Amino acid sequence: MLVAASFLIAAAVGVLSFGHSTKREVASGVVLGALGAATILAALGFCPFVSDAESTEGVLGVALAATFAWMFGAGTKAVFSQKAADLGSGDIRTGAFKLGWWWPWLLLSPTLVILVFFLYLPAYRTFTLSTKLTRLGTPRVGERCLSNFSELLVTNPAVVIMLPLTAVAFIWGVGMWHRRSEPGSWGHNLTRTIRPFGILIFLYSLYFIFENENGGYRLIYLNTVVISSSIVIVSMVAGLALAYLTFQNVRGITVYRTLLIWPYAISPPVAGILFFMMFNATGGIFAALANDFGFDFPNYATNSTLARLTIILASVWKLLGYNLLFFLAGLQTVPRDQIEAAALDGANAIQRFRSIVMPALGPIAFFLLITNLTFSFFDVYGTIDFLTKGAPAGATSVAIYELIRVGVDNGDLGRGAAQSVVLFLAVIGLTAWQFKQSEGRISYGSA
């Protein structure tokens, strides 16, 4: 029953991703969706649907089938759309390689070899390892199918299915309402206000599908969202503010800029050591100064809120120079004549910044959003390891720290690989969502 349901859902998803305007598109979507589902389910040996599999594993099997159906449909549509655009552009394209069709592949072979052996093959091995029961240094390997994933979730399949789908349906409905409402109407204004909060609604729904008992993954998820989002938002806002201040033409500004950029040269573990030396309650610099004035310096290692704030502060300090450098470069491209014309028209500093400076910095801000997000998900491990080691009571243990603790420190390779796959999918999903949201909003040049 679940196998048939998986293929039906995959076929429907394939149609939605490939297109449903014509009968040919519908048929192609059905074939591609079924092919995507068959590929992943065959690779798993249809283990999520065997009689002794957990109910949550069946849900994950259906979700995997739908995901690969979407990838097959959307990927094929993108290829055909690009070819159609090239053919319809009117440009006459002549062959550049006269030595044969294999010549471009020969030139690309070094890059392809590196990608295959250092990216695609390790990713495939990580996914296969996530379906095993194996420990570091132990030759025995057992099959677990998707149990390493299902144990991260609550045992109620209805909750796992309905909460994310309800959030997606709400976001999709608001988007459709926005597109169909007339500009300037109350519905259009309301949906324009709600739409940016769609990702928050989806993230909030995911919070309840993770296991919360016996040191479950729900706290790890919460820590990851709170710490990562805070690092990205604060570092970018502070970087832009400092870049705007240091862009002024004053004496010695080059020295100030250099001093502000220097922290980026420090590695995350060193940043963790420096902040440990400053904020340690027993021998730290701030604790000694507080004692001199008769105050008790709080111990961040015993307070979950202070521990998270310390991690965020150390990571923001580490990223600040990176963001400052790019924002300074972007400010140099802002057309001065437009700012002067706006000032002559009576626009104040805030209006000039919002209407002229921010649109010009759009491409750089989008690039920094992606890179800062990657740092907050992965490179923060070194800072946490030296500052808190996940304490107190796991309050600062994020996804990257937890998977290394489980997979490397505890030697449970299967569970660690499963958590790494979850983290990988989360980063890919957020990045794809950001690219989707940026369409039509970021200009990379004048028309």
Describe the structure.
This protein is an all-alpha fold. It folds into 3 domains: 81 residues, no CATH class; 59 residues; 221 residues, MetI-like (MetI-like fold), CATH 1.10.3720.10. It is built from 18 helices and 2 strands. The chain has a two-stranded antiparallel ribbon. A hairpin with an 8-residue loop joins strand 1 and strand 2. The longest helix has 34 residues. It is globular and about 70 Å long. The chain starts with a helix and ends in a 9-residue tail after the last helix.
Compact summary:
The protein has 447 residues and is mostly helical. It contains 18 helices and 2 strands. β1 and β2 form a beta hairpin.
Keywords:
single chain; 447 residues; mainly alpha; MetI-like fold; 3 domains; two-stranded antiparallel ribbon; 71% helix; 1% strand; globular
Number of helices: 18
CATH homologous superfamily label of the largest domain: MetI-like
What is the terminal-to-terminal distance?
54 Å
Largest sheet: 2 strands, antiparallel
Low-pLDDT regions: none
- Number of DSSP-assigned strands: 2
CATH-defined topology of the largest domain: MetI-like fold
What class do helices, strands and sheet pairing give? Answer: mainly alpha
